[in-house]
Amino acid sequence: MSKPIYYQTAAELADQLSAGELTSEELVRAVIDRTKKVEPQVQAFLSFDEEDALAQARASDARRKEGKALGPLDGIPVGIKDVLAVTGQPLTCASRMLEKFVSPYDATCIQKLKQAGAVLWGRLNMDEFAMGSSTENSAFQQTGNPWDTDRIPGGSSGGSAACVAAGEAIVSLGSDTGGSIRQPAALCGVVGLKPSYGLVSRYGLVAFASSLDQIGPFARGVEDAALLLQGIAGHDPRDSTSYKTEIPDYRAALKEKKGPWKLGIPKEYFGEGLDPEVEKAVRGAIEFYRKSGCEIVEVSLPHTQYAVAVYYIIATAEASSNLARYDGVRYTRRSDKAADAIDLYFQTRAEGFGQEVKRRIILGTYVLSSGYYDAYYLRAQKVRTLIRDDFMKAFEKVDALLTPTSPVPAFKKGERTADPLAMYLSDIFTISTNLAGLPGISIPCGFTGSGLPIGLQILGQPFAEADLLAIARHYEQAHDHHQQHPNLD
């Protein structure tokens, strides 16, 4: 039985579009129909505009007729996390603070997708201002995990992962500040790639923690992740942290780079708190690499134990600074209860921000305050350097690292909301990668006994995405976990 159109990969669909076997309009209609059918259960989207998506699809079909197709993404529907600016579309960051805000410009990655002919499809739910690991912090709705809608899809890019898993988009974009692409990808059984810091421009990404944020793709397979990364990577003078480097052909590299590789297993990632079913699946994946000729080496990343503390100092400090702009004067939220200008700030922020965002702003303001800056923020930056050094020493011995993505499978909604620390530990295996600015990918590597997806995380050297994708593809080609789909019917 052939796969439904909405569960085919971007690579497969691109071939059908270029062969004239399918039109973009037919594809987009199939995705819209699928979204309308399953969205009441999944709730991945904050908004979508059917007519706009169909108009983009017709424009793509017209280009193809004239022999002017713009490449493999032309006509493919791409879901957009509601933290990326698209001209004329809502940009809410799942917050009451930006509830009525409409973006006046395009993010650089969105401009690049438009130039590639992609169909921009909908605004995807997330944790408010990307702060969270479960998408329960959205001010508007709770997204369900398509494999079990009573469970969380992960966060903060929960909508981006869930919509791909549920067939509501072919691929999607998310952002990753401490695991916000890789963790939901693992929990929803899809591929999620966090590129090296500086590879994809952050211009037009609403800032949470500027030294950690990075935009990346969600997909059903590694080849699709390579296609989408190709579409958005590259230097941008409008982002001062954008890195000038040559962008290889990531899709071609999948065929060229064959291994065998020398792969490291960080012992710190296989200890207390790791779910036994997750450990079994990840160790099974490691054994696959060993049997296929890769050399497996145990390595140590000794400063891993400090990563969560360091992250929640640096990330909250940067969030406190970045979110100071939401003051009731600009953007859309303005309290009508304020007595004077100072009260306007207080009242607007009290009404506009959710609990988790307030918690992080308060934490960040504290660690930056007089008398505490050196004790917390400066010290955290020094330990951050040590964490990066651990990775660099490990990469002198190995090509990449294999770890679990999340210590646990998807948990029930509400299970960790009363315990912020338990929630923060959901990202324990992903945070260090952001602190070090490295690329990481999560790929499906199995299921629990109750049918919940498990993710394998592969961490690479800076700007070595081509190698990372090839190592991931090697596992994927020998397994069919990525071809399993949740039953939403």
Radius of gyration: 21 Å
How does CATH name the architecture? Alpha-Beta Complex
Shape: globular
Strand arrangement within the widest β-sheet reads 1-3-2-4-6-5-10-11-9-7-8
Number of alpha- plus pi-helical segments: 16
Which percent range describes the beta-strand content? 5-15%
CATH class: Alpha Beta
N-to-C order of helices and strands: HHEHEHEHEHEEHHEHEHHHHEHHEEH
User: Major sheet: size, sense and barrel closure?
Assistant: 11 strands, mixed
**Name of the CATH homologous superfamily:** Amidase signature (AS) domain
Helix content: 25-40%
The number of distinct structural domains comes to 1
Question: CATH topology, anyone?
Answer: Amidase signature (AS) enzymes
Structural class of the secondary elements?
alpha/beta
Q: Give the terminus-to-terminus CA distance.
A: 17 Å
